[in-house]
Amino acid sequence: HNAPMIQIKNAAEIEKMRRACAISAAALKAGGEAIEPGISTAEIDKIIYDFIVRHGARPNFLHLYGFPATACISVNDTVIHGIPSRDQKIRPGDIVSIDTGCKIDGFNGDNACTFACGKVDKEAQCLLDVTRESLHRGIAAAQAGARIGDVGHAVQSYVEENGFSVVRSFVGHGVGKELHEDPEVPNYGTPGRGPRLVPGMCIAIEPMVNQYKYAVKTLKDGWTVKTCDGGLAAHFEHTVLITKDGPEILTHGWEEPEWTL
Ligand code: MG
Question: What's the 179 CA to ligand 1 centre distance in angstroms?
Answer without folding.
Answer: 8
